[in-house]
Structures are given as C-alpha cells and as structure tokens.
Amino acid sequence: MSQAVLELTPSRLSARNIGGLVEFRLRRLQMAQVSTRGDITQVLTAMGGRTTSSSFRGMTSHAPGNFTLHTTTTPGTRAWIKQVAHILGHYHLHYILKHRGSPAGVIRCQNGGQVEREADVFAQVLLAAGARSAAEAA
Ligand SMILES: [Zn+2]
Questions:
Q1: Does any domain span residue 36?
Q2: Ligand 1: centre distance to CA 137 (Å)
C-alpha cells in the first residue's frame, strides 16, 4: 500500500516558542531530562510512537496518536537519539501543528531549509533540557 506524502511547511515558531513547546511536553510527561535511549523512548511511547530502521529519515502516521519514526542510524547510539529527537520535532512542528494529527501519510526529511532548521532547534532544546534544569537547580 503506498502512503500519501505529506507536505512539510515551516511552523514559523521562534526558537523561544519551540523551547516552550518542548518544556510543556516534558512537564506533561513529568520528565526533567531526555538524554538516554530509554528517556527518548519513553517520550516517544507516551505519544504513541515507535521507531524502525529505514532507508530514509522521516515519519509515517498511521492514525491519530499512532506513528512510526524512520531512522537511518544504529539504534541506541548518540546519533540515533539525535535523529529521533529531530524527527520528533517534525512530528510536533510540522505534523501536529499543521495537520492536526489526522491524515495518515509519510513525512520525509528534506535537504536543508527552514523545516529542517526548526526540527534541529526542537532536538537541541529537547536534548539540552536536563542540562538546563540541572544548572537552574544548582
Ligand atoms: Zn528532518
């Protein structure tokens, strides 16, 4: 069965607002930091997602709250954690915000451009959350 390819359009959220979105999500999950494979898997599972090794970076939405992230790196490595965080950025910024989570279909990472930069910001904020919390607590 071929899946519809969903268009990626920039969220146009500022880095500050992307940061707010990440913090909101982590508070809902009662998580202070996301640094290990277990952490990011916990975030993903709570949202209805899973990962699969694939030939491309992106995501397939099966139904609302049911999706698969496609990764090209070795599961559990630092590069994989970064890739999962990046694609989670697309899920939040370019799928949920733009498509309201309803249509089934495929999202593929592009070569550069604003949507990729936004997903990178999301990933950086998500993976830095613990470090920042620790610094604030000190
Ligand atoms: Zn991407």
A1: yes
A2: 32
Residue 11 CA, ligand 1 centroid: distance in Å = 13
Give the distance (Å) from ligand 1 centre to CA of residue 72: 12
- Express each pLDDT in 52-93 by its tens digit: 999 999 999 998 889 999 999 999 999 999 999 999 999 999
Give phi and psi for 62, each to the nearest 5. Answer: -95, -40
Residue 6 lies in a domain: no
Residues 57, 83 contacting (CB under 8 angstroms): yes
Instruction: Work out how many domains the chain is built from and give that number.
Output: 1
**Ligand 1 centroid – CA 8 distance (Å):** 10
Q: Which domain holds residue 30?
A: 15-130
Q: How far away, in angstroms, is 131 Cα from ligand 1 center? A: 24
Q: Which of 70, 33, 32 shows the shortest CA–CA distance to 49?
A: 70
